[in-house]
Amino acid sequence: MRQAKERAVEAGQVAAVRFRYFDFLMAAFVTVLLLSNVLGAGKRAVVDLPLVGLWPFGAGILFFPVSYVLGDVLTEVYGYAHARRCIWAGFCAMLFMVGMSWVVVALPPDAGWNGQAAYEQVFGQVPRIVLASICAFWAGEFANSFVMARMKLWTQGRHLWTRTIGSTIVGEGIDSAIFYPLAFYGAPDWPVGALLTVMATQFVLKVSWEVLLTPVTYAVVGFLKRREGVDVFDRGTDFSPFRTRV
């Protein structure tokens, strides 16, 4: 059965298949990206750890790593080309969000409305954060998907955990190294020491999330492969990120 599926992918037949769950995964992927930039990325929270004391972290860690889990699932089940399509959908959605955030904040407020200051405080920072996030997301997600697809070929489809964790280490490392300096360097409430601490903490926590969610990833991947009837191997795939066609 697996060999037949591999031959189908090489023959280019997967592009013509109508999948039952792909659209839902794409919607979830884009939703997580947008929420992570609006709700989580701009807030530096703190937790009191035993024997360590107060430890700062970015609030986006609560759910942003889910986008990498979804990226792994998309690449593993549907292949790099379908994952690339989701990445571009997220990219365009984030561009639209940052544009609309700027427009809404810039609109003159009505004289009887007192929420302008709060709007500016919350959404006024979104453009810089999202622009930084777009660069980090674009590079990190494509690196994650590429490593995932290549490792699937190297492992011949075995040992899923090695490629989900391995691809996340690469993708999240690139994401964190790009995002935090671009988004917060020079900001008055983000001293360099705190920025570096949060950046390192975020990377460790994001990878740890991937490790902890490995049983969930196995369950979701297994369910989708059975229900979709496909297990894509990216032999002969064009790995250029500058395409949207499947």
Structure notes:
- By secondary structure, this protein is mainly α.
- It has a single domain, classed as Arp2/3 complex 21 kDa subunit ARPC3.
- Helix content is 68%, strand content 5%.
- It is built from nine helices and two strands; from the N terminus they run H-H-E-E-H-H-H-H-H-H-H.
- The protein has helices spanning 2-10, 22-40, 65-78, 80-106, 116-123, 126-154, 160-184, 192-212, 214-228; strands at residues 44-49, 53-58.
- The protein has a two-stranded antiparallel ribbon.
- Strand 1 and strand 2 (53-58) form a beta hairpin.
- Helix 6 runs antiparallel to helix 7.
- The protein is globular.
- The model is unreliable at 1-11 (pLDDT under 50).
Layout of SSEs?
Blueprint: H1 2-10, H2 22-40, E1 44-49, E2 53-58, H3 65-78, H4 80-106, H5 116-123, H6 126-154, H7 160-184, H8 192-212, H9 214-228
Antiparallel strand pairs: 1-2
Helix pairs in contact: 2-3, 2-4, 3-4, 3-6, 3-8, 3-9, 4-6, 6-7, 7-8
Brief rundown of the structure:
The chain is mostly helical and 246 residues long. The chain has nine helices and two strands; from the N terminus they run ααββααααααα.
